[in-house]
TrEMBL record:
EC code: 2.7.13.3
Keyword Transmembrane: yes
Listed name of the protein: histidine kinase
Keyword Endoplasmic reticulum set for record: no
Native organism: Rhodopseudomonas faecalis
Alphabetized Pfam families for the sequence: CHASE, HWE_HK
Length: 549
């Protein structure tokens, strides 16, 4: 079991190490893959944004280059460009024609707008209509045409953009740099106050370097910040480098709002884009943390590895335990078969011994010249004594017989006349067979007392000494028996008393008459008498017994 536990523990350690290694590998791979995927998605989005901005700026350049007309004080200047600007399929909100109007052209401009049927034909600025040429000392940038012509856009016609907070500086810069210029982000009123910007491209009159006006395109900023994918790995914010503490963000509905640049959770990537002669910054914020995703994948991998390790260890332990239990059962069965074989061999040996003893008993009892009636009685008694002791040994599985039980058995003639005194020793199987014949032989010759008097028999035994020097003493005394009254021992009885039993017990015996009794004594080493198995199991050879009256 210790070795099995060590092997299972070693498997668990190896499995845990492999699970940790797999989790670390999964963490690195997931982190790398996530970062690569995020970088690739950002590159694709930034490239699309740059392409869109390039198309917008190209549209402004193309539209400004298509003006080839000697007269620009008209209300339909965008008519020749309509098919061209829509062919680009850009996402502009509106297009406009802004004329650089001299003060002396204000009246003519109002007439042109009225003739075109626009409801508000007055040339005006943020303070109100401009009536006289003296009201403005320099040229005005006036919106004279728009596309598409809807109520939200045509109501702006005739308005001077020179004093517009965002468009005024944009037009001045475009005039100065002679190239398309983008305005600051502001709310586009004709688009429900959606935040956007205007790209203004200067227009030069044919054959002159002087700018006569501007083609403008207004755009929403939301499309630049939308990923068009609900499962996108990032969100986008737009920053103007000139306002580094603020940025624009768009929600899922395309509504753009302004927020302060967050101090925590900075963007993972910043991309610079060029549009309208200005630099813009796209800030990419990951929606989920790559580290968190990698940690979750690593934890899942480790959990799966640990579960598999536990299953393998459990299965290995179950199989090993089953094999161990099966091996033990096989060993027990083999041991049982060996013991059974030994028992059978021992039984065969004991049966042979018993048959040899019976043969000897029959031969000695039925010797030539014996009285048939007496020989028959002795033969039956002796065989009965052997049968009784075999029955007692069988009941104890041949582990020994109590000495007191041998004297109490029905095989001993006139057992009721025998007074027993001594410790209840558990004698061995071999000693039991010899003592059973001994007790029968002694008792069978003690029943012929003269004049109807029954002898009083006392059987007692003691144990002296200890350890290997312990001795067993047995004394049989028949009172009221003399050499004249006691029946003479048979030839078999003499041999049994004087030679067979002492030799079987490894001791010495003697028999004699006193003035009042017949005595038989035997002394033998205790080790040859008692059952050693019982002695080792209980630590003692006998329990004290009360003398039988």
């Amino acid at each position: 079991m210790v070795r099995l536990g060590f092997i299972i523990g070693l498997l668990a350690i190896v499995g845990g190490l492999l699970s940790g290694l797999a989790a670390h590998r999964a963490y690195d791979q997931e982190l790398t893959i996530d970062r690569i995927a995020l970088a690739r998605a950002i590159d694709i989005h930034a490239s699309l944004v740059q392409d869109r901005l390039t198309e917008r700026e190209l549209l402004g350049r193309v539209a400004s280059g298509l003006f080839r007309t000697p007269s620009v004080l008209r209300a339909d200047m965008l008519e020749p460009l309509r098919s061209a600007i829509y062919a680009f399929k850009t996402d502009f909100v509106s297009a406009g024609w802004v004329l650089r109007l001299r003060p002396d052209e204000i009246a003519e401009a109002e007439r042109v707008l009225r003739n075109a049927g626009f409801p508000n034909a007055a040339i005006r600025n943020s303070q109100g209509p401009i009536k006289a040429p003296d009201d403005s000392a320099s040229s005005l940038d006036v919106l004279m045409d728009v596309e598409p012509r809807i109520n939200a856009t045509t109501e702006q016609l005739g308005r001077s953009l020179t004093d517009h907070l965002q468009l005024g500086p944009t037009l001045a810069r475009a005039l100065r740099e002679r190239k398309p210029v983008a305005s600051d982000p502001f709310e586009l009123r004709h688009r429900n106050d959606t935040i956007g910007l205007v790209l203004a491209a200067p227009v030069q009159q044919s054959g002159s370097d002087e700018a006569i006006g501007f083609v403008t395109f207004s755009y929403e900023l939301a499309p630049l910040m939308l990923t068009n994918d609900d499962n996108a790995m990032f969100s986008v914010a737009l920053r103007d480098p000139r306002a580094a503490d603020r940025e624009l963000i768009a929600d899922d509905r395309g509504v753009v709002s302004v927020r302060a640049v967050p101090a925590e959770n900075p963007p993972s990537v910043l991309r610079n884009e060029r549009f309208g002669g200005r630099d813009w910054i796209l800030a990419y914020y990951p929606k989920t943390s790559s580290v968190t995703r990698a940690q979750n994948s690593a934890m899942l991998t480790a959990a799966i590895g640990i579960v598999l390790t536990m299953l393998i260890c459990g299965l290995f332990g179950y199989i090993s335990y089953s094999n161990l239990r099966l091996r033990r059962e096989i060993e027990v069965r083999i041991g049982f078969e060996r013991r059974l074989t030994a028992v059978i061999d021992e039984l065969n040996h004991r049966v042979k011994n018993i048959l040899a003893v019976i043969q000897s008993i029959v031969t000695r009892t039925l010797r030539h010249g014996s009285d048939v009636d007496v020989a028959r009685e002795l033969l039956i008694g002796r065989i009965h004594a052997m049968s009784n002791v075999v029955s007692l040994l069988t009941d104890s599985q041949w582990q020994g017989v109590k000495l007191n039980g041998l004297l109490d058995s029905r095989a001993v003639p006139h057992a009721a006349r025998i007074a027993v005194n001594g410790p209840d020793i558990m004698v061995s199987a071999r000693a039991a067979q010899s003592l059973a014949l001994l007790f029968f032989e002694l008792a069978s010759h003690a029943d012929s007392a003269p004049h109807g008097q029954q002898p009083n028999v006392v059987a007692q035994w003691t144990v002296t000494g200890s350890g290997d020097d312990a001795l067993f003493h047995f004394r049989w005394e028949e009172f009221n028996s003399t050499a004249a009254t006691r029946r003479e021992d048979s030839e078999f009885g003499v041999i049994l008393l004087d030679r067979v039993v002492p030799e079987a017990l490894g001791g010495q015996a003697k028999r004699y008459f006193t003035d009042v009794s017949y005595v038989y004594e035997i002394t033998a080493p205790l080790a040859t008498v008692v059952d050693q198995g019982e002695r080792e199991r209980t630590g003692r050879i006998a329990a004290p017994v009360k003398p039988r009256p």
